[in-house]
Amino acid sequence: MTQEPDWNVLTATCPSRTSLVRIANKWTAMIVIVLGRGRTRFRDLRAAVDGISGKVLTDTLRDLERDGLVARHVFAEVPPRVEYELTDLGRTLHGPLLALGDWAEEHIEEVLEARERYDAR
Fold it and tell me: Model-level pTM?
């Protein structure tokens, strides 16, 4: 009988740390939040995630696809149509990242006030 490894994100050599780094990325969080709404074309993703460059979006989507969080669908049309959606694994991440986004929106005034107090010292 083989023993399951003890994954520990706090250990430098643990592969789970790379997953944490990927999902803690601001662009990843925003992309997963948008894809939680359903299958989305590249251009619509780029429009929904204000401020992201095409290159960063492409690179992030590739990383998420590699990690099994996003599926890429290419349609043989002219011009070619490409859509992205969360996989089953990616959908397990949507809720926690959506909660983080909601928290950020709900508490931004408190954060801004705290920054002002800190900077005034």
Answer: 0.88
